[in-house]
Design brief:
The complex is a heterodimer of chains A (393) and B (83).
Chain A: H1 3-8, H2 12-33, H3 38-46, H4 65-76, H5 80-99, H6 104-116, E1 120-123, E2 141-143, E3 146-153, E4 164-170, E5 180-186, E6 190-196, E7 210-218, H7 227-268, H8 277-304, H9 308-312, H10 314-342, H11 344-347, H12 356-362, H13 371-381
Parallel strand pairs in A: 1-4
Antiparallel strand pairs in A: 2-3, 3-7, 4-5, 6-7
Chain B: H1 2-12, H2 35-49, H3 66-82
The chains are: A alpha+beta (393), B mainly alpha (83).
Chain lengths: 393, 83
């Protein structure tokens, strides 16, 4: 049996836990220095987890979105930067796996990605557009079968560490802002000129610096489907679900720390219920809500998967938006509860109960695709969408 | 019906191009129809044709072209006649 074969014989969760152990050891250093989680991502690659969602005939393991979400939740408990890097990479894979079927170049790329455990980033944000990924100013220019693209990308998460970047742009110089395509560029096909530094409150290790992207590649590297379809049917839902899973992970680790604190207090004073115990019960209750929210969303996604009509339905978008909103808001309440439970030990860095990193990382959740933008989008849909009032539907 | 759809699209579509330049089967999203504009257009269509879009027609495909909108409206009005 090959080394890769031996690793792949273990369950995904077992492999994820082993990688998470490494990622967790470096989580504080990654956070303090605002550096890429190299050790964590090296461990993820060593466990051969980069291409698990790819079809087996292309070298992947055909893992479901639910299984990938479970991996994200495990990483979220150890190192949010590793978890977010991994989740964003999987979002690109989901787009390629679902929307480039039969495209020879993209299938060969996925095969190489599995074989060499490549990391793929994305460049959707653009100066002058903000965070609206369904709009581009830049446009590809195709000359003799070669595409040329220059993009003033305000954010490319882990861009300097990626083996390839999927870049959105207008289809051509005459196309409307929303008439977009996505093109995969390999890292020897582009240059990145850094324009801003990712020095942030939390999620510091994703190194989401801004770059001036200049790429040149064969036209066959453009994804065959319009980006509008990719965004609607895969990218938005997958983002909300995988982010939701790793955000759950961050909150779950906070609750674990708070519980350890309460338990230690209970041992010190036998016969007395520690003051934080009641609040821990509240945090546990909220954590269960977050978990149920993400799991229900994954179930709905798996049911709709492969059915473009179901994935395009307004009710599906409303549900996915609600998962994002609910999860991103509730984890902040949970971690704040945990901070109250642990007190100064939680507020202080370097204790077994430290929660500063969790709280700072969690604050990014409301901003990654702004909750206000999502609520605005949902409110538009609710003008016409029929509410499903059934419990199970 | 097509003429009414075109008129409402001009009014509510917020397209960067003139609706007159679009073929009936031209892709409206490629032409710049946003999801917000598509909802505004849907509300206007419901008002103009005195119909209500059922759940299964509330998707991107129903509003992907003038012909698709027309087909969706025909489906709704046909159902009404049968009922």
């Amino acid at each position: 049996m090959t080394v890769a074969g031996r690793i792949e014989a273990l369950t995904l969760a077992e492999r994820a836990r082993r990688a998470a152990k490494v990622a967790g050891e470096f989580a504080d250093a990654v956070d303090v220095d605002g550096r890429f989680p190299s050790e964590g991502m090296a461990a993820v690659k060593a466990e051969r987890l980069m291409g698990i969602m790819v079809r087996p005939d292309l070298g992947g393991e055909g893992a479901s979105m639910t299984e990938v979400a479970d991996v994200c939740a495990i990483f979220g408990q150890a190192c949010a930067a590793t978890a977010m890097t991994y989740a964003m990479h999987q979002i690109q894979i989901a787009s390629l796996a679902d929307h480039a079927v039969g495209s020879a170049w993209h299938e060969a790329f996925l095969r190489r990605l599995c074989d060499q455990q490549l990391l793929i980033a994305s460049a959707t944000s653009e100066a002058g557009i903000g965070g609206n990924l369904r709009n581009s100013i830049c446009a590809i220019e195709t000359v003799d079968g070669t595409v040329i693209l220059e993009k003033d990308a305000t954010v490319i998460s882990y861009g300097a560490h990626a083996d390839a970047i999927m870049v959105t742009s207008r289809r051509n110089q005459d196309a409307a802002h929303s008439d977009q395509v996505a093109t995969v560029f390999l890292n020897d096909q582009y240059t990145l000129e850094q324009t801003s530094v990712w020095d942030t409150l939390g999620m510091r290790g994703t190194c989401s610096d801004g770059y001036l992207f200049r790429g040149k590649a064969p036209a066959e590297q453009i994804l065959p489907k319009p980006f509008a379809e990719i965004a609607a049917q895969s990218m938005l839902a997958v983002s909300h679900l995988l982010w939701g899973a790793l955000w759950y992970g961050i909150a779950a680790d906070a609750v674990t720390r708070a519980q350890a604190f309460v338990k230690a207090a209970a041992k010190r004073n036998p016969g007395q219920t520690p003051p934080g115990a009641l609040r821990l019960a509240e945090a546990s209750n909220l954590l269960q809500l977050v978990k149920a929210n993400v799991v229900a969303g994954l179930k709905q996604f798996e049911t709709c998967k492969g059915d473009p009509d179901a994935l395009n339905a307004m009710s599906f978008s409303v549900a996915m938006n609600n998962i994002k909103i609910g999860t991103s808001q509730t984890i902040l309440t949970i971690i704040n509860h945990c901070m109250l439970i642990c007190g100064i030990a939680g507020y202080k860095n370097g204790t077994p109960f430290s929660l500063g990193r969790h709280l700072r990382d969690a604050h990014s959740a409301q901003l990654m695709i702004s909750n206000d933008r999502i609520l605005g989008n949902t409110s538009t849909m609710l003008l016409v969408n029929k509410q499903d009032t059934s419990l199970l539907g | 019906m097509i003429a009414t759809i075109r008129a409402l699209l001009t009014q509510h579509g917020g397209l960067p191009v003139s609706v007159d330049t679009l073929a009936d089967d031209g892709d409206l999203y490629d032409a710049g129809l946003s999801s917000f504009a598509s909802v505004q257009l849907m509300l206007a269509l419901e008002e103009a044709f005195d119909v209500e879009f059922p759940e299964h027609l509330l998707n991107r495909k129903s509003f992907s072209s003038i012909a698709a909108i027309s087909a969706a409206l025909s489906e709704i009005t046909d159902d009404r006649q049968v009922a």
